[in-house]
Specification:
By secondary structure, the chain is of the alpha+beta class. Helix content is 54%, strand content 10%. The chain has a four-stranded mixed sheet. It starts with a helix and ends with a strand. A hairpin with a 2-residue loop joins strand 3 and strand 4. The protein is elongated. The protein contains ten helices and four strands. Helix 6 runs antiparallel to helix 7.
Length: 169
């Protein structure tokens, strides 16, 4: 019994120290502070978007992959509160009880990012009232440069930090 109680008391202390990185980092109540260190260009873009996007804006960014969760995708929507077409499809499935809407939006998002035809992209962006498109490291990993470069043909780059560009319609 002593061994069980001791283990039960020791574990939370050691686990807290480990999860808190032994309190080596500066403490803060800012839940996105870690992004400024891990993804400084994303952080700068997040700050810009949060300060400059109008209330009715919609941002397009790379969505999560199917039912995968707890990914860094959907970061601009999640961390600014600005709606996007799709963050984590699996999360939507959990709360909606089906995957119908994410299944409709995923191919449209892929088409917008992949197509080389600006009119096709614009037509789909009109359907969802997209105001901003983010092209950052996650978008560059998932979509070909040829598809991403077209945004500069019909949208205005309003922010750039390193490899992160925000285009506005």
């Amino acid at each position: 019994m002593v061994l069980l109680v001791t283990g039960g008391v020791v574990y939370p202390v050691l686990a807290t120290l480990d999860k808190a990185n032994y309190f080596r980092d500066e403490t803060t109540l800012n839940g996105i502070e870690w992004i400024s260190r891990s993804y400084p260009n994303d952080y700068a873009a997040l700050m810009w978007l949060g300060q400059n996007a109008p209330r009715n804006a919609v941002v397009l960014e790379a969505p999560g992959s199917g039912f995968a969760a707890y990914q860094y995708t959907g970061r601009f929507s999640a961390l600014t509160g600005i709606p996007t077409l799709l963050g984590w499809g699996g999360h939507q499935s959990q709360w909606r009880g089906n995957y119908e809407e994410p299944a409709r939006r995923e191919p449209d998002i892929d088409t917008i990012f992949n197509t080389l035809d600006p009119q096709t992209a614009q037509s789909l962006m009109d359907r969802y009232d997209v105001s901003f498109v983010v092209v950052g490291s996650l978008e560059r990993e998932r979509y070909p440069a040829s598809g991403l470069n077209k945004f500069g043909q019909f949208m205005t780059p309003v922010f750039q930090s390193g490899d992160v560009i925000i285009y506005q319609r």
